[in-house]
Design goal:
With 77 residues, this protein is an all-alpha fold. It has one domain. 56% of the residues lie in helices and 0% in strands. The protein contains four helices and no strands. 12% of the residues are buried.
Length: 77
């Protein structure tokens, strides 16, 4: 039985997922169409990236423009 992932491990998994999305236009569009964090987490899990809503919250807190879903801040366009 493996031990739970640490916050820093989950943060790295999310960073890796974002990096993949920045390179994969199909995944990027799928992420942009996510309606909420549950959709986003489900998309990530389908690709083998496992993190939770608190991990997203830590990443979102890096953004200052909350006028749109903050995962849009992952992309320059």
């Amino acid at each position: 039985m493996s031990s739970p992932l640490s916050e820093s491990q989950k943060d790295q998994i999310l960073r890796d997922f974002i990096e993949l999305a920045q390179k994969d236009s199909e995944l990027k569009e799928e992420i942009k169409s996510a309606r909420n964090q549950d959709d986003l987490i489900s998309i990530a899990e389908q690709k083998g990236y496992f993190f939770d809503s608190l991990t997203l919250l830590r990443k979102w807190s890096e953004h200052t423009d909350f006028s749109q879903p903050t995962w849009m801040g992952w992309f320059a366009d």
